[in-house]
Design a protein that fits this description.
Blueprint (H helix, E strand, L loop, with lengths): L3 H10 L7 H17 L6 H6 L3 H6 L5 H14 L4 H25 L3 H8 L2 H40 L4 H22 L4 H26 L3 H9 L8 H16 L4 H10 L18 H34 L10 H12 L1 H34 L5 H17 L4 H15 L1 H11 L2 H4 L6 H27 L2
Helix pairs in contact: 1-2, 5-12, 5-14, 6-11, 6-13, 6-14, 6-19, 7-16, 8-9, 8-16, 8-17, 8-18, 9-16, 9-17, 10-14, 10-16, 12-21, 13-16, 13-19, 15-16, 16-17, 19-21
Length: about 475
């Protein structure tokens, strides 16, 4: 009988090659026996070392684009669209876990897997779509960070005679410096950057916890609309608008760039797989997958709670006072008179943290995309510089950053299937995933989720194109 410890060491040390069928059979037997013999127990100290990748990915779910969509939904329709976030979150959990699983099992990122398993013409097509999504996302998130700085410090500069364009340009330059500093932290180790992003997510959560505390929501009504799908009633126009906003909220939930990125974020920890297994009967790769599943659940549900808090705050602060707020700057201007200067300042701080963290994540995703699809080394600081140039030009010529945010969502709607479909194809192939291929129920759930997302994105694009 082959020694299982040597088998697992061989498996962990050869992540880029296919596993021997005999090895797969022995691993399957060992895993099935272990499930019967013992309940898997996590070692708390070890589990915490695996937290981080999903939190970095979760930043895309609370970026400046989500701010605008959630605030408009809450201000127009109160609590009614909370259920959209619940179902969006369920889809996000599934898709983000599949991305992480692909990276853990294969030892390659999603772009690298596409280059390895698809033809060159298809790979190039996927790369073009991925680049468009990464550039559009990074541009919008960078502008969101600049807008956060503008809201916090712009009034003082405006009072000293600066124009809006000059103030926004200064905010954009400061944002660029801040993101460069954040990216430099990665040089000290990937976990330092992950911890900083987690701090940003925590600050955003605390800010919205404070906002919700101020408005005293009706928790029973909020819970009802979270669990029971409802839309606006009273007129056909109101129904039409609520559908439009609900589609927009769902369409902006699954971001293409972090689907590529998550498969890369799990790579640094793969070196741990070469260590002898600490728990008998489980491969180190299986253990990592379980830790990552917890990471995904914690991070995605945290993002869901923050998004829900945005709607709850807008529902009480704006909807109950008869104000319809359609963008983040208007929300900032409205919060001050309604809830006091502290509420407006906290809102701007949350937007700034969202913009800086999501812009950083966008740059990281862009680097993973270009290196994975083209098999080249590309400096991450050069990637940041490439994105800064069009953003600075947009602000310098006086274009509205908020319109750019909306345009980016349209671009992402087009790019989304080019990330989701390859992910589901690859994770459903035994030749790629071997023992870890997706179960039938997972494949069905994945394709249903993709079908729903793409159908609703098509409706959203139709509404934008033809004006409803």
């Amino acid at each position: 009988m082959t020694d299982h410890r040597s088998v697992r060491t061989q498996e962990a040390g050869d992540l880029d090659t296919e596993e021997d069928p005999q090895v797969v059979s022995e691993l399957a037997e060992a895993d099935s026996n272990s499930v019967v013999k013992r309940v898997f127990k996590f070692r708390r100290n070890e589990m915490w070392t695996y937290f981080g990748p999903a939190f970095v990915a979760s930043v895309a779910y609370i970026d400046p684009g989500n701010f605008a969509t959630n605030i408009e939904g809450g201000s127009r329709f109160g609590y009614r669209l909370l259920w959209v976030l619940l179902w969006s979150n369920a889809m996000a959990i599934l898709i983000q876990y599949l991305s992480a699983k692909l990276g853990i099992v294969t030892g390659l990122t999603l772009p690298q897997n596409c280059r390895k398993h698809f033809s060159r013409p298809i790979t190039m097509l996927l790369w073009v779509a991925a680049e468009i999504s990464a550039i559009a996302t990074d541009l919008a998130e960078f502008l969101g960070a600049a807008l956060g700085l503008y809201l916090l410090f712009g009034p003082g500069l405006l009072a000293h005679g600066w124009s809006r364009t000059q103030t926004m340009l200064a905010a954009a330059l400061l944002s660029a410096v801040a993101v460069f500093v954040i990216l430099a932290i990665d040089l000290a180790g990937y976990q330092w950057l992950e911890r900083l992003i987690m701090i940003f997510v925590g600050v955003i959560g605390l800010c919205y916890g404070f906002e919700v505390f101020l408005v005293h929501p009706d928790w029973r009504l909020a819970a009802f609309h979270t669990l029971v799908p409802t839309l606006a009633t009273g007129s056909r126009e109101a129904l039409h608008e609520s559908i439009y906003i609900a589609v927009g909220m769902l369409g902006a939930t699954v971001m293409p760039h972090v689907i590529y990125l998550h498969s890369a974020l799990v790579q640094p920890r793969l070196k741990d797989l070469v260590e002898p297994p600490k728990i008998a009967g489980f491969t180190r790769r299986r253990e990592y997958l379980r830790f990552e599943l917890i990471d995904v659940f914690a991070a995605m549900n945290g993002a869901w709670l923050i998004n829900s808090a945005m709607i709850v705050m807008a529902a009480v602060a704006f909807s109950h006072n008869g104000a319809v707020v359609t963008d983040v700057e208007q929300a900032y201007r409205t919060l001050g008179p309604l809830l006091g200067p502290a509420a407006a300042t906290v809102f701007a701080v949350a937007l700034l943290c969202s913009g800086l963290s999501s812009s950083t994540v966008g740059v990281m995703a862009g680097q993973v995309i270009i290196e994975g699809f083209l098999h080249i080394k590309f400096p991450i600081f050069l990637r940041r510089l490439i994105t800064i140039i069009p953003a600075i030009l947009i602000i310098a010529i006086g274009l509205d950053p908020l319109r750019i945010l909306i345009l980016s969502q349209v671009v992402l709607s087009f790019a989304l299937p080019f990330a989701l479909i390859p992910l589901l194809i690859l994770t459903g192939r035994t030749s790629v995933m071997h023992l870890f291929v997706s179960a039938t129920r997972t494949r069905i759930a994945g394709w249903v989720s993709v079908g729903v997302i793409l159908a609703l994105n098509a409706i959203l694009l139709g509404e934008m194109a033809f004006g409803g």
